[in-house]
Amino acid sequence: MNLTDSALRDGEIPLEHWLIGISLSSTALIVIGLYIPCIMAFLDKDLRSFDAYTFMLHIGVFDLIQAVMHFISGILTIVPYNYPKHSFDWIFGGMVEAAWEGYISLSVVLAINRFVQMAMPKRVDQFFSPRLIKLYILLAYLYMLAWLVVFYSNACNFVFNKNIYLYYFDFSMPGCGLAYDINGNSAYIELAIMAACYTGTVFSMKSMLKEMRQGTAEQRNAHRHEIRTTLQLAFLFLLHLLIMGTWTIAPKYITMTPYHFFAISLLWIILNGSNPFIYLLFNPTIRSKIRALAGKTEIKTTTVLQFRSDI
Fold this sequence. Notes:
Layout: H1 3-9, H2 15-42, H3 45-48, H4 51-78, H5 89-119, H6 124-127, H7 130-151, E1 158-161, E2 166-169, H8 176-214, H9 217-253, H10 258-282, H11 284-293
């Protein structure tokens, strides 16, 4: 037993737990603070008529759920409780993992949407009609709910280890091994689909640029908006791939210390925060909507969002 274990069992809170717990919770709060104005902007009726922003709204909901659970993990790192297992671990751990499953499933749909938008623009309404979009979003929430049922069952639970600052599968339970394998393999498949879609999307932009030169001024603006949004989402996918690769590969080649696990946990929270950061940094439409919500400017309804069926 190390000194940290001994201190925890004696009800003491090591200084490193204070620092790391505060860091985790503070970073999660920053993510929540960045996301809330973006979510409010996505609720704007103009943006909700646009496929990508509709998906980004609900992806943001999944991200916010994860950020709240990460905030709680920072508190659990500090609060003295019966180490190493707490009666609420299964609730928070199951919720953050289920929200991740919903997040990545809807991100796959968004990647397919971007590919269809660039490569087959005339088929957008066929594959992404308003009714189908609602169905895809509903299925993502049901997918999250299905995982939540698994994680809240007697077959598989989560525990939070204060020494590594992570929720992890409780492999002492009969179904956790299978759930872990399905969870990991499905993530690899979903990432492969997203990679294929964004690769195809980038190569398809040439035809979109050609159409831009032939269309009206309003259609050119619409195409330009689609390309800009797609490039932002492709960059976010690459960032996700980098962080997830670090998360997966690092423990296999590095002798992990609690500080390494802290860094990985922090990376995961940053992953949740990368979406609103990129939106706010590179998307002038979202920034304009947020400024309008704050009452600082009055923006005109942009016409580029009215030509989805013509793109």
